[in-house]
Design brief:
The chain is of the alpha/beta class and 332 residues long. The chain is 24% helix and 27% strand. Strands 3, 4, 5, 6, 7, 14 and 15 form a seven-stranded mixed sheet that branches. NADPH dihydro-nicotinamide-adenine-dinucleotide phosphate (NDP) binds next to helix 2 and helix 3.
Amino acid sequence: NRQFVLAQRPDGVPDDEDFDLVETDVPEPGPREVLVRTRYLSVDPYMRDRMREGESYAEPWAVGDALRGAVVGEVVESNHPDYEAGDTVTGNLVWADYAVADGADVVAVETGDLRDSVALGVLGMPGRTAYFGVTDVLDPDPGDTVVVSAAAGAVGSVVGQLAKLNGCRVVGIAGSDAKVEYLTDDLGFDAGINYADADVADALAEAAPRGVDAYFDNVGGDITDAVFAHLNVRASVAVCGQIALYNEEGVTMGPRKLPRLVETRARVEGFLVGDYAPRFEEASERLAQWVQSGDVQFRETVADGLENAPDAFVGLFEGENVGKQVVRVEAE
Ligand code: NDP
């Protein structure tokens, strides 16, 4: 059994030195525990915060701790009455070939015709983040112009499609022409901006000629400043994430001058998907219906092999993924 531990705290963008793949015995499930064989594991931007010391909504890992995140896998041994060998479950498990968990800490996965990895993406945490962020936090009106950053990623790609279903004009910001084409040609976004190749503020003047009524922010930093410059009076901003800043040390903390924030009287609201736990089922059911009907489309970027999990994780900060980044593990 192979398992990843945090070798050292990353300095800036993480690299291979920060991760150790160690050999351990396959763990024995204790009373009420299950032994899970990993099929897919999720790498997520928030994990970067767990690698640093200090304040975060996700508790920091200690050096030497096992890395952990959302996993979908097969129960191979069960001491819990709700599960038996062969069941597919998901939970917050260590990055390993095999992991044990309390049966109360995993849930059964039903993905119908879709592969299990969707439980980590469009039907899992990122899909729900998009769902609650759009329906509850941003709550745009039909006809509103909605902008989303990291638009071709796991959360952003669903955000834009939900806003379209709501009758909004949707503009996505992403880091390559291929991603922008995906947004406009496949996902039905009205416009896309490749921030690597364009001045975002100038491009927005064209893509959002009536200004921005709602902004779903996944990235923070300069892109967000450019969007703020186009906010309309009483605009709404949902702050979902700030990936552009996750590898920076010494970022100025706290509210600073944001372009036009005072003038527009915009409402800027952070949110955490975890707060919506009592409504997860509602979100997953609705997302599953939209996926079934074709109203919500999705892509996944799959890295093969547990040993490639760190690269897949680092790739998130380099925009290597389209849609949800997962790692296929499937040990013998
Ligand atoms: P994604 O699938 O969107 O992957 C991250 C993407 O971010 C990359 O593909 C890349 O796309 C983009 N990116 C990376 N670095 C930068 C940068 N410096 N500037 C601009 N874009 C960058 O990840 P997720 O969908 O899982 O997460 C998206 C955001 O949502 C993250 O900020 C995450 O922390 C947050 N989040 C928040 C939750 C909450 O409860 N509040 C829950 C889940 C996620 P590109 O090629 O376009 O640069």
